[in-house]
Design goal:
The complex is a heterodimer of chains A (311) and B (335). Chain A has 311 residues and is mainly alpha-helical. Chain A has helices at residues 10-14, 34-50, 58-85, 90-96, 101-130, 132-137, 143-175, 180-187, 191-213, 219-242, 246-252, 257-269, 284-308. The longest helix of chain A has 33 residues, at 143-175. Helices cover 34% and strands 25% of the residues of chain B. Chain B has twelve helices and 14 strands. In chain B, the strands form three sheets. Chain B has a six-stranded mixed beta sheet with strand order 6-7-8-3-9-10, sandwiched between helices. The chains are: A mainly alpha (311), B alpha/beta (335).
Chain lengths: 311, 335
């Protein structure tokens, strides 16, 4: 069926014995791993590109600064714990420190938003700006494969940015504790909420910023759009709340990705909602549903965009 | 079975633009030139063959696989070099080509080896580690060709590969295409609006215009029919033209040049004799067949004369006509 290439067959048949292909081009007879391999490769490429790896030095500046700053709270608190431990009050300090698993997302959420605004446009915008997308689509993968691999790669980068500091925090807490197995047992219950919250944040913030980036080759537009999406609903909801309409204002918060993630954080860790100025009383399911709807919607929009984009 | 089979293929963009209009053609392996002026539908055809653009109606198969449903299977064995810029300026040729080799399904080590090989094949050496942003147009075109070859496709689709190149660059690119097609036995389709270039490397030409097939034939047929002899004289071009017309040639005066249509060997002697007898100051005689317009202008009158002749076999169309001789039974009355 696919042997219809060259019935001419001249090179193979007519070549006398001992002739040498010395021209730098040989046929490739090895395996072709197909779509799955293509998607995995693109996923890894996206993950690396999100941190500027494999690109010029300038591409690494923003991810290194933002990633480093996300690590900073963990480094600082572990450092403090080390010092305090020398005075024998380490355990008491560790349990009262302001940086804990349930507060970590809130502490670095602004950095994550900035990371999205800086790096998501790099992934989708570059491909469109340079026309590389035509070369991807001319290969053995589907347009949806391309979109999903890129989004997943970026979400994975966000996951790393969140989990790495918390891993550091965990190691610091455990290793500085006089009773290591006990400390592990104490922190173990925090793992599921940490993973769930980080996953939701990576999916929602990553998905939404990639959805916006998918629509423009212009980096500046995408960055502005992402910042707008992550701030304006907050401001609107805050204004409505400030004007005294707390019911409408509270429901409006569900349109703000960062507020939704604050909500899921408080639900997952069983902590009170960290709003500064108003009591928020929405059903738990509303926050979770808003987060999942946002993730699914963002991915659907992105896939649809690349199904229609002209090459 | 044809490598590519296209049946009644139509592509419309909205109501206004018809890129392909009932195109039917079979393409066999070899180096095939796809010629047509800008907007003739060449790029659209290539994208449909890749499964990147959905045809409005009609059928097309590549390797006997339907382009609508088997796009990924087809693309696994097709290399595509787009017309436009498609390379990131901040990455090196090695990075781009090896990444695209991975996406083409090659394992990591194979991707690295193949990248080095194809970049050497297209003539990129030390510069392949530098960022593409600093490359000349010629080098970029080579990288574009390399990425199309890296997974060793069975079919190579090149969309205007000499775009933006200077004459030397064009020659080198065409030589590269010719070597790739002949020495490695890869089927190649080269889309171009420059017939003069494409005829240097192709074995077969497919000419389309306005989304329709103009002609599909081996290269030799085209050259014969589009051949024009330009006879340039310092003076007396009108006299020469009259003389040649009198000899039964089809002649056009174009400034100082007299363009003579050549369909066989006869005009060469006639031109020589006419120039000599008129004692004209001859500047040069050259064959011109480089302009696509000539192809399109000359073609319509030709087919009835040559192409139309063979298929009409003079089979005696008699059998049905002379049937009447049934004996006329006179509707006679009763005796």
């Amino acid at each position: 069926m696919t042997e219809a290439t060259t019935p001419a067959g001249l090179p193979a048949a007519a070549a006398p014995t001992g002739s040498i292909y010395d021209i730098g081009y040989r046929r490739y007879e090895g395996p072709r791993l197909g779509r799955g391999h293509a998607v995995r490769s693109l996923f890894i490429h996206s993950l690396r590109s999100a941190f500027g790896i494999g690109r010029g030095g300038r591409a690494k500046i923003a991810p290194i600064i933002l990633g480093g700053m996300a690590l900073l709270p963990a480094i600082a608190i572990v450092g403090a714990m080390t010092m305090v431990a020398q005075f024998g009050v380490g355990e008491r300090f560790a349990n009262q420190a302001p940086i804990r698993y349930e507060t970590y997302f809130g502490t670095i959420s602004t950095l994550i938003v900035l990371f999205c605004a800086a790096q998501a446009p790099e992934l989708f915008g570059r491909d469109q700006r340079n026309g590389v997308i035509a070369l991807y689509f001319a290969r053995a993968l589907r347009r949806s494969d391309y979109a999903l691999a890129r989004v997943a790669g970026f979400a994975a980068a966000l996951l790393i940015i969140q989990l790495l500091p918390q891993l550091l925090l965990f190691l610091g807490r455990v290793l500085l504790s006089p009773d290591i197995p006990g400390a592990v047992g104490e922190d173990l219950p925090s793992f599921p909420p940490v993973l769930a919250q980080s996953g939701l944040a990576a999916g929602l913030l990553g998905g939404l910023s990639m959805a916006i980036s998918a629509f423009t080759p212009r980096r500046a537009y995408a960055t502005a759009g992402i910042i707008a999406l992550f701030t304006i609903p907050n401001i609107v909801a805050g204004t409505v709340l400030g004007l005294g309409s707390s019911v409408i204002g509270t429901w409006l918060l569900l349109l703000s990705p960062t507020a939704v993630l604050d909500g899921t954080n408080s639900i997952l860790f069983g902590a009170p909602f960290g709003s500064d100025f108003f009591f928020i009383d929405l059903p738990d399911i509303a926050w979770i549903a808003a987060a999942i709807a946002g993730i699914v919607g963002a991915i659907a929009i992105t896939v649809r965009r690349f199904a229609r984009i002209a090459t | 079975m044809a490598l590519i089979s296209i049946r009644n293929l139509t592509k419309r963009y909205g109501d206004a633009i018809t890129a392909l209009d009932g195109l039917t053609v079979d393409i066999e392996p070899g180096i095939v030139g796809l010629v047509g002026s800008n907007g003739a539908g060449k790029s659209t055809l290539l994208k449909i063959l890749l499964g990147l653009v959905e045809p409005t109606s009609g059928e097309a198969t590549v390797f006997d696989l339907d382009v609508r449903s088997r796009g990924t299977d087809i693309r696994q064995f097709v290399g595509y070099m787009p017309e436009h810029d498609c390379l990131p300026p901040d990455a090196s040729a090695t990075d781009v080509v090896s990444h695209l080799a991975l996406i083409s399904g090659l394992p990591r080590t194979a991707a690295r080896e193949r990248t080095a090989e194809v970049l050497r094949h297209v003539g990129l050496y030390e510069e392949r580690y530098r960022a593409i942003g600093g490359y000349s147009t010629g080098m970029k075109q080579r990288v574009k060709l390399a990425q199309a070859l890296v997974h060793d496709p069975r079919l190579l689709l090149l969309d205007e590969p000499t775009n933006g190149l200077d004459p030397t660059g064009r020659d080198e690119m065409l030589e590269l295409v010719r070597r790739t097609g002949t020495e490695f036995g890869m089927a190649v389709i080269v889309a171009s609006h420059l017939l003069g270039e494409i005829e240097r490397v192709c074995t077969h030409l497919v000419a389309i215009e306005g989304g329709r097939l103009l002609r599909s034939a081996p290269l030799g047929d085209f050259i014969e029919q589009t051949g024009t002899l330009a006879v340039e004289v310092d003076e007396g071009s009108a006299a020469l033209a009259d003389r040649l017309k009198a000899a039964g040639l089809s002649v056009v005066v174009d400034g100082r040049a007299v363009l003579v249509a050549i369909s066989d060997e006869r005009p060469y002697d006639l031109v020589r004799d006419a120039v000599a007898e008129l004692g004209l100051p001859l500047v040069r005689i050259e064959q011109r067949r480089h302009r696509l317009e000539d192809l399109f202008r000359d073609l319509p009158p030709v087919p009835p004369a040559t192409v139309g002749a063979p298929p009409v076999l003079e089979t005696p169309a008699a059998p049905t006509v002379p049937t009447p001789p049934t004996p006329p039974t006179p509707p006679g009355g009763q005796p």
